[in-house]
Amino acid sequence: MNSDADGVSGKDQQLHGTTLRAYWFIFRSGKPVGVRETQRALSLSSPSTALYHLEKMRELGIVEKDTIGQYYVRDNVQIGSLKMFLKVGHLLLPRYLFYAVFLTTATVVFAILEMMIGGNLEVAAILFGFAGAAISWYESFRMWKERII
User: Fewest beta carbons within 10 Å, which of 23, 24, 32, 105?
Assistant: First the structure.
């Protein structure tokens, strides 16, 4: 068994469901959170259930525990579905969002410049630009919608 390759895929498989919801809760709170706070926020059945998910994330290296027993998010987390997001300040944004914004802006600027110059408007270029932008927007919204699952 290859420890490096299997270890990474094992971590990827463990970050889902309630554990991922717990991560999003800690991340959004922006401050260290305790076990009971996590239990209440996620409507978990008991503090031990919350503790299980918090400790699972700590073992994965996603969160750390301070001296008073509260958990906080580490800086660089690239495990599981979190690989598809970029951390910008206190926000996690889908990676496709940047492609969507770029393709939309580039296509609009291209169309405006073509009309200002008075040249032939390249319909194929506009269609390809907007098709790429539409796919990127769709993927961005889909990822954003599924972020709490």
Answer: 105
pLDDT tens-place string over residues 41-81: 999 999 999 999 999 999 888 899 999 989 998 866 666 66
The whole-angstrom separation of Cα 91 and Cα 131 is: 27
Per-residue pLDDT of 13-47, as tens digits, reads 667 788 888 888 888 787 899 999 999 999 999 99
How many angstroms separate the CA atoms of 123 and 132, rounded? 14
CATH of domain 3-83: 1.10.10.10
- The span from the first CA to the last CA of the chain, in angstroms, equals 30
* pTM: predicted TM-score of the whole model, two decimal places: 0.60
The first and second tokens of residue 91, run together, are: 């926000």
Q: Which of 34, 96, 24 is nearest to 62 (CA)?
A: 24
List the chain domain ranges.
3-83, 90-145
